Amino acid sequence: MTYALLLIAMVALLLLRQPLIVILLGVCAFVQYVWGKGQYDYIIEDMWVGLDKELILSIPLFILCGNVMTQGSTAKRLIAIMAALTRPLPGGLAVAAILSCGIFAAISGSSIVTMLAIGTVMYPAMRAAGYDNKFALGTIMSGGTLGIIIPPSIPMIIYGLVTEASVTDLFLAGVGPGILILIVFAIYAVWHNRKMPREKFSLAELTTSLREGVWAMMMPVILLGGIYSGFFTATEAAAVALVYAICVETFVHNEMKLKDFYNVVLEASKLGGSLFPVLAVALSLNIILIEHRVPPALVEFMQGYISSPLMFMLLVNLLLLVVGCLMTTGEAILILAPLLAPMAVAYGFDKVTFGIIMILNLEIGYLTPPVGLNLIVAMSAFKQNFGLLIKAAVPFILMMMVCLALVVWQPWIAMYLVNGRF
């Protein structure tokens, strides 16, 4: 009965469109009232305990790094390399856009930053080259979603914080599904544009673009190579990436003045200012739930109704797809991950595998109304009708759902690198 009341309260607050921080504070107060004998002062104390983690520093550093590269010319140089490589393919420019999104995602850790950095260059270029408007929009919006599945990923860091899963393992596990989606998108781009004229491969163009973009290409190599080799942690990687991005954009590419750094920091601070209060409350709630053994009790409650791991996974995927339509990725992870991850473990699923499945589900949410962030941002950035953007996203949503089903069916796609078989 208590769990039902908690669920009803959360749903009611969501339907009333209350801010996430209000919902989390309400749940914290409810849990402390029911299980903690009304010790509400522990909520504030646990906020400080929850935030006292080195890993949290990586979030603003990755945000800042992405903003620096968006301000500079990293995205344009990556696009030039990919365009030179894919020229001989039908739909080569679309394939270049998808590959550029994948590589930029391996630097920024953000879906919206990836979409805007690549889309502001590639969308006009694709339209000028004769690509269908709906296809061009779908390509840019769906390519942007790769920012949260290809590591490093800010949602993966948040999931690791609230579930105590290894962020390095999550990063490794994101590589396989990310490459799978990249390949599927690229194949679709070639097939959809199979009647478009091809261009001749130009070695001179490729050589020039590589020479001008070598510093940009080295970023993911340094970043991911350092993390996976164990040379530095995710937080240290974020700091290295930020310093590298500032040095390259300021002293090598000469695209950003040091005085511009103030505005970059200001934009990152606005995002961090909205994220960290919510993260503090969510981590406080997580501590309270664990102290009062709420997740194990909820697992026992669920197992009384659902005995099959397959049925559990089907229901969870359905839930997450619906939640992705109504909440942002960060909100969904902060609210649901502390409750669903222990359940997944109880049903025999690895916590890292479940994290990737959860993020894949929520990745689709970036393209689904009413709160699909890539749809909303694209509407403003590209001055397009919201209905048209939804139609443009449909083929890519279906492809992503197929990829999700493959990862659920064959989890080795995500866990291959984590298990050390490389």
Structure description:
- Helices cover 77% and strands 0% of the residues.
- Helix 4 (58-71) packs parallel to helix 7 (111-128) and helix 7 packs across helix 18.
- The protein has helices spanning 2-15, 20-34, 41-51, 58-71, 74-86, 92-108, 111-128, 133-144, 154-163, 167-192, 203-228, 234-252, 261-291, 294-303, 309-326, 329-346, 351-364, 373-381, 386-409, 412-415.
- The N and C termini lie far apart (49 Å).
- It has one domain (2-415).
- The chain is globular, with a radius of gyration of 22 Å.
- The longest helix is centred in the middle third of the chain and has 31 residues, at 261-291.
- The mean pLDDT is 80.
- It has 20 helices and no strands.
- By secondary structure, the protein is mainly α.
Structure at a glance:
The chain is mainly α and 422 residues long.
Layout: helices, strands, pairs:
Layout: H1 2-15, H2 20-34, H3 41-51, H4 58-71, H5 74-86, H6 92-108, H7 111-128, H8 133-144, H9 154-163, H10 167-192, H11 203-228, H12 234-252, H13 261-291, H14 294-303, H15 309-326, H16 329-346, H17 351-364, H18 373-381, H19 386-409, H20 412-415
